[in-house]
Amino acid sequence: MVGKLFASGDLHADRRAEFAETLAYLGDLDAAIDVLRGALELVPGWGAGWFRIGEFFERSNDLAAAAHAWARAVKEAPDDPFGAGLRRDLLREQPLSETMPPAFVEMLFDQYAPRFEASLLEHLEYQGPVLIADALNQGPGWPVRRALDLGCGTGLIGPVLRPYCVHLSGMDLSQAMLDEALAKGLYDQLEKADIQELPIMAGHYDLIVASDVFNYLGALERIIGWCAASLAVDGRLIFTVERSQNEDVPLTLCQSRRFAHGRQYVHGLLRTAGFGTIRIEDVVLRKDRGVAVNGFCVMACGLNGPGQHHDDRESELPVDA
Predict the structure, then answer these.
(1) For residue 61, what pLDDT is reported?
(2) I need a labelling partner for 33 at 20 to 30 A (CA). Which of 64, 182, 214, 256 fits?
(3) How far apart (Å, rounded) are the C-alpha atoms in residues 36 and 49?
């Protein structure tokens, strides 16, 4: 049967969609498209169906039809839980998207939660915990009072953060991921929230960590500003991002439907937000089909508090080449 999240609400359309999936699996994409098109005639407002037929069109190399189908998917489901807008945008010579639909991120990780950690650690050689631990070891003055694991997911970074703080909070958009984190018993507070829409919590945290989270946001102006405003004056921000291959472009939408960021873009945002000490290190985040995914581990502190002044020449650590 068609999964609940993808069902059309019409039994006949769902049966046609299942038959289309069988045809596609057998390699007859033309027939699969015809059958699924028939299902969409029964339920023309079925966003998931338009998304799937777009995938069929892409596989058959009819990119114009794929783009049209994905545009229709967004029209029928404006919150875009399938990421159809991103798929359409990737067909452009230069993708224009600067953010991901929160509904897409939420559904993606709700489905991924049960196998998330095994996939990252056993198959992708994920380096997040090691990178964050190394960054924390470079900072003085532990433990701090309040720390936030921003985009905490299943709590994979929780064991690393716990010794460095008195109170540990976690935030994530996916309730399924938060349920996994809760089971670890490491967090004092867990909250379901869209981190692109957080209210300012002035001076509330002494440490904010975001491991492989900003890859799913795209443009970082809002979240970097939020972190700066929500940190105490002596607070620290640590995060990882994927590295853009084109340093002249602030951010790039990759085929993975994650974003990669330019070094100068990241550095400029942190400087504008008021961080006086910035360190950006080249790292390998994980493997993807056996190929290293390059990124940055970023550490920033030295915020300008009220009545304080800083001199760039004295306070800024060099940006690693």
Answers:
(1) 94
(2) 256
(3) 7
For residue 242, what is the DSSP state?
Answer: E
Residues 181 and 219: beta-carbon distance below 8 Å: no
pLDDT band at 94 (very low <50, low <70, confident <90, very high): low
CA 139 to chain centre: 26
CA distances from 27 to 31, 32, 44, 145, 292 (A): 9, 9, 25, 58, 31
Nearest CA among 197, 119, 198, 125 for reference residue 153: 119
pTM (two decimals):
0.80
If you count them, how many residues does the chain have? 321
Per-chain mean pLDDT for the chain: 88
Alpha carbon distance 196, 217 (integer Å): 8
The pairing of strands 144-150 and 165-172 is parallel
Q: Single out the residue of 192, 168, 162 nearest to residue 180, CA to CA.
A: 192
| % pLDDT > 90, the chain | 67
Query: How far from 83 is each of 47, 53, 101, 195, CA to CA, in Å?
Result: 11, 14, 7, 18
Give the residue among 258, 250, 304 at the shortest CA–CA distance from 277.
304
Domains of the chain: 4-97 (1.25.40.10), 112-315 (3.40.50.150)
Q: Letter for the amino acid at 127? A: Q
Q: Are 270 and 315 in contact (CB under 8 A)?
A: no
Give the integer Cα–Cα distance in Å for 59 and 69. 13
Which are the contacts of 120, defined by CB distance < 8 A and separation ≥ 6?
Answer: 126, 128, 156, 286
CA distance 117 to 209: 18
